[in-house]
Amino acid sequence: MDHINEKILRSLSRDGRMSNLDLAERVGLSPSACLRRVQDLERRGVIKGYRAVLDPAKTGIGFVAYVTVGLNTHTKAAQEGFERAMQAAPQCRECHNITGTVEYLLRVEVADLVAYKHFHTETLGTLPQVNAITSFVVMGSPKDERA
Length: 147
Fold this sequence. Notes:
Helix content is 39%, strand content 20%. It is α+β, with helices and mostly antiparallel strands and 147 residues long. It has 2 domains: 3-43, Winged helix-like DNA-binding domain superfamily/Winged helix DNA-binding domain (Arc Repressor Mutant, subunit A, Orthogonal Bundle), CATH 1.10.10.10; 56-137, Lrp/AsnC effector binding domain/regulation of amino acid metabolism (RAM) domain (Alpha-Beta Plaits, 2-Layer Sandwich). Helix 1 crosses helix 2 (20-27) and helix 2 (20-27) packs across helix 3 (31-43).
């Protein structure tokens, strides 16, 4: 990974719809050389895809929480069962297996507090492997570079 590829990745992570001409100019390459590099990054799996950045309020998301989840057993089966449940839950936008006193950190996006309570009670609360749930409600996001 050289500094030009790093510039390409930084630029595309900010604006994945940037034209190849604009990208080439920004990173100091000819358009054909830039396109070859981007295609190589895609082929090697460095660039896994492109996403749209959505306005939560305009898509009905008015409530975001980060949730830590502790499991009652530390087995592979318990982890796999929990991860399957999170894959199936559309409210869970991110699920990370983490180190520390709990096993998982979730990003949950729903319409409002009522919808979050339903997810908390009817999804997380019904999973047999869940032992502890702690919610951290997002009050604002002064920096958010996720795509």
